[in-house]
């Protein structure tokens, strides 16, 4: 009887391990997650897609930034390179702040969510600064000096993108890895593949940005 009871307890324990995520994780409602409904590739592929989009956006801007400063904002080359370096430097340092906020206050999920919202605000403002008549660089096809409103909107937009990048970089990759439970044999194997797909998504975003996006900016329009 005692032996049968032990076997039944082991089976129940194994069943719980298969049904529930028991690594102290909680879902958005603060409850223990059901394994079949959350995490693993269901969430990880979405996170990889976010990284692909973020790298596509960032390098699509960074690659042509000096060209934009010189041709649209009519800055001399020295000032254009300096402004591009300022932006690049701020963007590089922002993950230090983002990592601190994630660890000390918000956690990875909230930090990624907030960073994504800020990033999208920057991208939307960047797009509107080219299409809204009051924010366009000029009225005419050719102009000597761009509008001040366009310059302000443009710089606010790219620095919002810097802040968004600062929230993504220290949190997104590890948040994706959190979707796989180390104590679950199948998910542990999936986690090894996750980092390969993460790197593939990142490189695909960069490659698409420096080829397709740059081609569109050069041949079709900003």
UniProtKB/TrEMBL annotation:
One of its GO terms (cellular component) is membrane. The chain crosses the membrane at residues 86-106, 112-132, 195-216. It is found in: Membrane. It holds the Pfam family PTR2. PROSITE patterns: PTR2_1. It is a multi-pass membrane protein. Keywords: Membrane, Transmembrane, Transmembrane helix. InterPro entries: MFS_trans_sf, POT_fam, PTR2_symporter_CS. Gene3D superfamilies: MFS general substrate transporter like domains (1.20.1250.20). It comes from the Eukaryota. PANTHER family: OLIGOPEPTIDE TRANSPORTER-RELATED. Belongs to the major facilitator superfamily. Proton-dependent oligopeptide transporter (POT/PTR) (TC 2.A.17) family. This is Major facilitator superfamily (MFS) profile domain-containing protein. It comes from Eruca vesicaria subsp. sativa.
């Amino acid at each position: 009887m005692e032996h049968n009871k032990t076997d039944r307890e082991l089976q129940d324990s194994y069943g719980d391990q298969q049904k529930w995520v028991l690594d102290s994780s909680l879902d958005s409602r603060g409850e223990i997650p059901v394994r079949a409904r959350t995490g693993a590739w269901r969430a990880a592929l979405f996170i990889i897609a976010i990284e692909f989009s973020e790298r596509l956006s960032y390098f699509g801007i960074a690659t042509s930034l000096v060209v934009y400063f010189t041709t649209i904002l009519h800055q001399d080359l020295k000032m254009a390179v300096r402004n591009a370096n300022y932006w690049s430097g701020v963007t590089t340092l922002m993950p230090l702040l983002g990592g601190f906020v994630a660890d000390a206050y918000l956690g990875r999920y909230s930090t990624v969510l907030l960073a994504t919202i800020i990033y999208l605000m920057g991208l939307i403002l960047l797009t509107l600064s080219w299409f809204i008549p009051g924010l366009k660089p000029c009225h005419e096809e050719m102009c000597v000096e761009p509008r001040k409103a366009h310059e302000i909107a443009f710089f606010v937009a790219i620095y919002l993108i810097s802040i968004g990048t600062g929230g993504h970089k220290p949190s997104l990759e590890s948040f994706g890895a959190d979707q796989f439970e180390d104590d679950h044999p199948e998910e542990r194997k999936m986690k090894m593949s996750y980092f390969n797909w993460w790197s593939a998504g990142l490189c695909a975003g960069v490659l698409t940005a420096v080829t397709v996006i740059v081609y569109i900016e050069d041949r079709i329009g900003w």
